[in-house]
Here is the input.
Amino acid sequence: MKVWIDIVNAPHVRFFNGIIKRLKADGHEVLITARDFSNIHDLLEIFNQEYISIGDHGVTLEEKLLSSTKRAYELSQFIKDQDVDIAISKHSIEMPRVAFGLGIPNIFILDNEHAIAANKLTLPLTSKLIIPEIFDVWNTIKFGADANNIIRYNGTCEVTHLEDFEYNPNILEDLGLELKNDKIILMRPEPSLASYLDADCTKSVLTPIVEELKETADILIIPRFRTQGEIFDDIENVHIIKTPVDTFSLMKKADLVIGAGGTMNREAALLGTPVISCYPGRQLSVDNYYINKGLMNRSTSLDEIITLSKTLLEKPHNNNPLKTDNLIDLIVDEIYKTYQEKKIVD
Here is the structure.
């Protein structure tokens, strides 16, 4: 069996790593395509994954449209000669279109029900759709997904990210960080380039939070792109962390994580580190999963965030493991099922 995996965002590298390893261990061929965006290529190389770089990512709506259109064409030209049996991706705009057009069964993993434009463009063309149980199924069906082809699981996509994770207690020393405070706050700015979030790339919702907490703790910030890091230049007790980096060890080492995005917040919750989500968009169901279990806090009020931060900085990490479905097993099983269904049709 030959499986095509299309990777379009940095967290997807870690998400697919365990799946790729399992497929290869079972003797199957895995073809990886990846767009040139964020530090996707660096991470693929760190994980020793061979890939084909196709396409990039625009900033403005016009640039995104042109980049996606060009990428769909380039992927079509490449994939048509690859004898792919099954395609799989997480939020790739182009993969479902290319797979559908070439008659390749495709599996789509979704964890953002509010990415309206992306969901309209992809869900009607997916063969199988994998979503968390906490999702309101209507939020997928209304975009054109076939209710008969929806697979649900207990947990969120981030449960795959901890596969093979080994904590490095010396991460701060390895990064050469000289800290002044006993407490550490790790922060992640908002995904201001994403089409589903109306955000200004020259600003961040974290700025006033940083100003209020910079005397309380050393603040480590992992920007999504170079100019986003420049927003926080020359602020006392603020350290800009360059990627790629062992973010899991940083999250586990930190006393608190404050994130204006999603993935890193949920990873920190799984690691037991206190988390505050200040994501400026509509609240996601996958965040509610952790909020309902008491593993994440959410607020967009500056005063509330500052008060809560000072409380959580004194709170010990949660060491109670969260029980979820094994998402790697579920996805690999679904790949095999889809392949068998394809063989019957062929």
User: Anything to note?
Assistant: The chain has a mean pLDDT of 92. The CA atoms of residues 77 and 248 lie 37 Å apart. DSSP finds 14 helices and 13 strands in the chain. The radius of gyration is 20 Å.
